[in-house]
Amino acid sequence: MSNFVTIILKESKKREQKKAMLPPSINQLKNQATKLFKIQPPNKIQSIYTTDGVLITSISELSHGMEILVSTQLPDEDFSEGENQVEEAPKSSPRSSQIPTKPKTPISPKQTPPPNSMNSPKFVQPPPVNVSPMFGSKSPKMSVQSSGRQTPVLGQINEPSASTPAVKQPTSGTPGRSPSPMAQNQPPSPRSEEEGQMVRNTSQLAIIQQSTPELEAKESSARRSNSPNAPKRNTVTRDGVEEQIAEILSPDEKERRAMLSCGVDRDLIISSLSENLSGLFSDIMPSNAAATGSSSQKGSSRLGQSAKDDEEQPEVTNETLKTAIRQVPQVMQRFMTQNGNSEITQQAIVQKRLLNHFGEIPRISNALEQHINDQIKNGTFSTLGGFNVNFKTLIVGPRSSGKTTYLKNLAKNVYRRLIASGQYRHTFVFNVDFLQIKESFDDPIKFYNAFMGLALAQAASQRIDFQPYLDMITQYFEKIVQVDTFINLPTKFSLQDDFRATSAVLTELASNIFNAYKKSGSLSIFMTHVVTIPDFIAKAFGYSRVLVIADHIDVADVLVPCNDQLTRDTQNLPIIEFVKLLLEDNAFIAGCQDERHAIEAIDLIADDSTDILTGTDIVSVINSDLDETHSSEIWFKLQVAGQTPNVLLRCEDCGGCPGFLARWDVIISMAQQYIIEEHKDKNSKKLRERKLALITKIRELAALVFAEEGDFGTINPYPGKINDFEIVQNVRNE
């Protein structure tokens, strides 16, 4: 049932050989070989070769019975790849060669202007630039002050460029300099202020464009670095707005500037809204006051009281409305946070209720979990809208080999992905185990009630607001096939605003069921409408697709008889044909009891039947649980009546089936306790009891592992009775 290879240690002079079962990946085979040859860390198997010396890189290159060589040394290809990477590393450097650099200008010595020429256009300076360390680094940080003067930077006075008009800057208000008497008596003209501002902006741009060697080194390193912690360049835009100012702005001002950069004037919108709302309030308030005055003309006391009430009413102004409008984003943010928390809670409830339909889900090994995740990747696809299900899978395997365990864990992981991606709002999950409703197969009405009850119960699990009406709607659909006149949905449900569209679809479904049962008299028509119940439930609650989880579908390959109401058909019909109608147009994950029976049942049986075998992925549980946690240190030598020699029962005989390996783990645990008790006292009563319980478990597993399945689920039992066993320590750990 499993594939084995012979492993030879390349470094061993005795050419030691071990047998190992083929795992799913080449790394697992290396780990297994490391344990078999008991190689002590830090050494381990690094490479695998054929007997001809060809390097093996994939598990698909191995076959049953093949001899391979293993080595603790890295293959030659790994060293060559590392050398190539080292050689190519300088070629993959960032695009520093493409970044143009400014020519370095020598720093001129400090120039001191003559005292009489301080106010000349030549020495009108832009704001100073301070160079300071940035977070402890040696590269300088440049900041622009708002003063009208420029202080020398690193011993240099920067003069305006030749293209800058030499306009005299007013010196009034400049700190550290006494204005001239003429400047004190003569007010500055608007033209001079504009020209002075032009000079300042132009000087700022000129000073930013200059670069010292330290600043150039910092800028080039920032361009080459892809790290998010790389130092930011200090730049000033052409509008004269410094980026450093944004760091100390309030969140409200940052939001206003961000919207303004996108062409949206937030202040203008708020002003417009406040003016419109204030006009609306001004139109409403006088009419209310007039109505109050006309209704209170009976006495002066009422007039006085009305005037007093009007005076006490708060006045709605533009500033009040602006303040209220500014509070709207904060309120919406709190609302969205609370809504998100409630959605997370709802997702947890939905997942818990859906998983409750499966009952207890056993824990599985890491290898089986990885195998299931691979099947999910093959059966789903991701789009811009999220995670979509495209399953058409039939899980097969020997009897009691863990097919139901595999199906439950597969469905659980699919549920989690649907919830994580938000697609559970668009996917209706219908779970049915035909083995649990097998008793309803002898009557079409019993089958209808069981099928309808499952669909409505799972709709209530996914739609929490439908839960209070579940019993009411279930009783309504049970009553539909009992009355002679069609009745409408209960008004307590149909008049709810949240379920008006749902009520229309459910009414249509009830009408179809009633007409098919009471008027058509055909079993075929009635059963066809019954299996379309999940599709109508999904449509009623706004789901766009259906995922069917059906276990033991081969159990439904039985005939359903006609009753007194359905007499139009002259023969009984197989339920599996109607189940295939449900699976044909929807995604499904199906399990079975007998694999050969299930494959024949979903195939084209007759000319007018449905074929869903074409396009269905057949997934076997054999070799799905090749995990190292299942112990292979103990074997059992079985003494079978009438057979010699004895038969060995090993972990490899389970074939990697999760159901068989779960029983094997229990047997290993019991065997370890038996060995401990045997060392204490070989003749104790407790030891005999442990041996009796252990041989019972061994007989159950041996009957499943060594049995051969016959036609349609019949099992040819293991010939001979297991009378005794002997525990053999697998010293070689094969």
From TrEMBL:
UniProt feature, compositional bias: Acidic residues? 76-86
Q: Where is the composition biased (Polar residues)?
A: 140-150, 199-213, 223-234, 289-304
InterPro entries recorded for this chain?
P-loop_NTPase (IPR027417)
The segment annotated Disordered runs over: 76-242, 289-317
Low complexity biased stretches = 98-110, 170-181
Any idea what this protein is called? Uncharacterized protein
**Tree of life domain:** Eukaryota
